[in-house]
Amino acid sequence: MEKATFGAGCFWGVESFFRQVHGVTDAVCGYAGGHAGNPTYKQVCSDKTGHAEVVEVTFDPAKVSYGKLVDAFFANHDPTMLNRQGPDVGTQYRSVIFTHSPEQERTAQEKKAALEASGKFKRPVVTTIEAAPPFWRAEEYHQRYFEKNGLPSCHVNFAEH
Description:
Blueprint: E1 2-8, H1 11-19, E2 24-32, H2 41-45, E3 52-59, H3 66-75, E4 84-85, E5 88-89, E6 95-99, H4 102-118, E7 128-131, E8 135-137, H5 145-149
Parallel strand pairs: 6-7
Antiparallel strand pairs: 1-3, 1-6, 2-3, 2-8, 4-5
Helix pairs in contact: 3-4
């Protein structure tokens, strides 16, 4: 098994989407990329800790490639929105890929460059690609939020994958 970490706005929808991808064995909501240890949701929402809402994905590379996960990440949010997705605004909602190896970094950079070159977006792709920092699991009520509450998804597009 391998890990992949993505921030694409509200983590509830991102987690729900990745749980449905064949080859993904787990997806966990959490926080990464900030300067405070073990942050709470309230602290992250203050936009003062520097953390992004992220999803840590555990996947079987024999069933789904990291490249396919990056493609799904880019297809299911607007990577040209700086520090926001839909109605959610703040650096905690930024578009970010945290990589866990040089191979993941290379793949993510190649996928981002190909997306920028495709002309699909009129604005630049603002997704950052960074080495994976510590991951802090979000509070339990955030895990499988839609499943627990019987709610529809956020901004992600389930039909594409």
